[in-house]
Amino acid sequence: MAQNTSMEEFEALLNESFEIDTPSEGSVVKGKVIAIEAGQAIIDVGYKMEGRVDLKEFANPGEAPDIHVGDEVEVYLRNVENARGEAVISREMARREEAWDRLEKAYADEERVEGAIFGRVKGGFTVDLGGAVAFLPGSQVDVRPVRDAGPLMGLKQPFQILKMDRRRGNIVVSRRAILEESRAEQRAEVIANLHEGQAVDGVVKNITEYGAFVDLGGVDGLLHVTDMAWRRVNHPSEILAIGETVKVQVIKINKETHRISLGMKQLQEDPWDAVAVKYALDSVHQGRVTNITDYGAFVELEPGVEGLVHVSEMSWTKKNVHPGKIVSTSQEVEVMVLEIDEAKRRVSLGLKQTMRNPWEVFAETHPEGTEVEGEVKNITEFGLFVGLQGDIDGMVHLSDLTWEGRGEDVIGDYRKGDTVQAKVLEVDTEKERISLSIKALDNDPFADAVGGVKRGSIITVEVTKIEDGGVEVEYEGMKSFIRRSDLSRDRAEQRPERFQVGDKIDVRVTNIDSRTRRLGLSIKAREIAEEKEAVEQYGSSDSGASLGDILGAALKGNDD
């Protein structure tokens, strides 16, 4: 009986020993390295169980395995026994379980964790956090985009856990958060030691179209392109290079956003302080064209002092052309100072004022009556524009094209490019107008014909045409018209048909119109004048003599 009791106790103790010494699958157990062979470590995990682990599982990314015989290590027991009677164990899984416990605590306490970037994957990198692998997005590597992450690979450094899910095995970390935090602390410290107006040294870190970012020792300031120099700067790269050390002045500090505005020109002498003295009104200076716009050209008088030559002040003759057709960028030009506005820092310049007014020059060299020759530049409904010396135009009005006929009828005989001769009638320098005349080259046939004729003169004309309203006559080649009412003093004789073409008749000149080039003629006026003269010479109607008697006596006297 006692023997049976002893056997039961021994069996119970044996089972209890098995339960205590035999670890359960899926747990982390301690073991001892008893041998290293064929790239594997043989580990005794107790209860006469041994397992094999590849040496690479004992190595950190990029490092050699650090394991020796006799070392005690923790491993993960996956299976108590495999087909070869060995325990299936993993050092990597043990490290992962240990790491997850540690990382979950750090994540809960918002603490930083240490890790090393060891691989590149789509969208980012892989990070070893001491056994657990995390994902580092590309946007979380640095505060600025990183083109080459090579120097960061394998380097142990702190990370911030952004998100983790143990069930799915996902961990997302950020290196940028650590940098921003330390950067913010550093910025606050540097900014606290800066004040507006202070001159400091900095290093150019980046150049953009609108300026450059300068590192002031942990904090960046913006040096805008307009604050680099007093002169016009088209691009910051003209005067700065990345990595260059420059002296700048703190213009403004925004305590809330920690933004710093810097300036370089503020440390230099302002050239505008002496502008009024150096550039007196109406003085002429040499300058360089720096920029051309639709409304004019900017000319640099000296570094930092620019003036605008408005398009209206560029040329005496080219009125409606783009400034780029008159001057070109970087061209050296002579300009005159027209106006200075020191408050607005503006100088108005003139280009044409450095050259003589071509209309004044033309008026001096071509007084009225001078004959000129030029090319027909344009033909309009009111006349011809002729190109003249000095790149200016003169106009021949329709009324100055010909003595005979109408200008509208002869303007069609001219074409663009024709060379014509004309006389200068008038030069108006203020209105910039030159009046020319082609017909003035020849004598006025009307003036020649009526040169000796005066109003009241009796002349002999020849009938050239009979019309209902009167007769057309010719005198010295000049056509005139006698109206029906002027054909006779007697109404019964005011009949055009009583005349024939070729008849010679005496008429009295009643009007000389040089503008219309017409003579006013009248037979009636001649008869009245003759009657008046006869009455004055031979008597009056009051003496009792009849008009027939007086005229008869006058005619008889003429016959004698």
From TrEMBL:
Record flagged with keyword Repeat: yes
Record flagged with keyword Acyltransferase: no
Residue ranges constituting the S1 motif domain according to the UniProt record: 26-92, 110-176, 197-265, 282-352, 369-439, 456-524
Keyword entries, A-Z: Repeat, Ribonucleoprotein, Ribosomal protein, RNA-binding
Regions annotated as coiled coil: none
BP terms from Gene Ontology: translation
Gene Ontology molecular function, alphabetical: mRNA binding; structural constituent of ribosome
GO cellular component, as recorded: cytosolic small ribosomal subunit
Pfam families attached to this UniProt entry: S1
Stored SUPFAM superfamilies: Nucleic acid-binding proteins
InterPro entries: NA-bd_OB-fold, Ribos_protein_bS1-like, Ribosomal_bS1, Ribosomal_protein_S1-like, S1_domain
Function, in words: Binds mRNA; thus facilitating recognition of the initiation point. It is needed to translate mRNA with a short Shine-Dalgarno (SD) purine-rich sequence.
Stated family: Belongs to the bacterial ribosomal protein bS1 family.
Protein name: 30S ribosomal protein S1
